[in-house]
């Protein structure tokens, strides 16, 4: 059994708090010797970067910052 822990902050929705706990749990799954993992600010920064890239992908393609090959 693996457990993800997020220190709940009332400024975030319960849904987001659960998503963050799941991310921590997923991290614990990657480390067999660890049965639990605490959600950290590093995890949050990684998710924010990932979301930024997703949100701006079309713009990057449109401005030719990256090229897509089929």
Topology overview:
Layout: E1 3-5, H1 14-29, E2 36-38, H2 41-55, H3 57-62
Parallel strand pairs: 1-2
Short description:
The chain is mainly alpha-helical and 70 residues long. The chain has helices at 14-29, 41-55, 57-62; strands at residues 3-5, 36-38.
Low-pLDDT windows of residues: none
Mean pLDDT score: 92
Q: What summary fits the major beta sheet?
A: 2 strands, parallel
Oligomerization state = single chain
Following the backbone from N to C, one meets helices and strands in this order, namely EHEHH
Question: What would the principal axes of the Cα set say about the shape?
Answer: elongated
Question: Reading side by side through the largest sheet, how are the strands ordered?
Answer: 1-2
Keywords:
single chain; 70 residues; 3 helices; mainly alpha; two-stranded parallel sheet; 9% strand
Explained architecture:
The chain is mainly alpha-helical. The protein has 3 helices and 2 strands. The protein has helices spanning 14-29, 41-55, 57-62; strands at 3-5, 36-38. The chain has a two-stranded parallel ribbon. The longest helix is centred in the first third of the chain and has 16 residues, at 14-29. 7% of the residues are buried. The model has no long low-confidence stretch (mean pLDDT 92).
């Amino acid at each position: 059994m693996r457990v993800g822990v997020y220190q709940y902050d009332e400024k975030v929705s319960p849904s987001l708090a659960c998503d963050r706990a799941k991310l921590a749990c997923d991290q614990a799954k990657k480390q067999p010797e660890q049965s639990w993992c605490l959600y950290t600010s590093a995890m949050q920064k990684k998710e924010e970067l990932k979301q930024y890239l997703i949100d701006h992908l079309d713009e990057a393609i449109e401005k030719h910052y990256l090229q897509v090959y089929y």
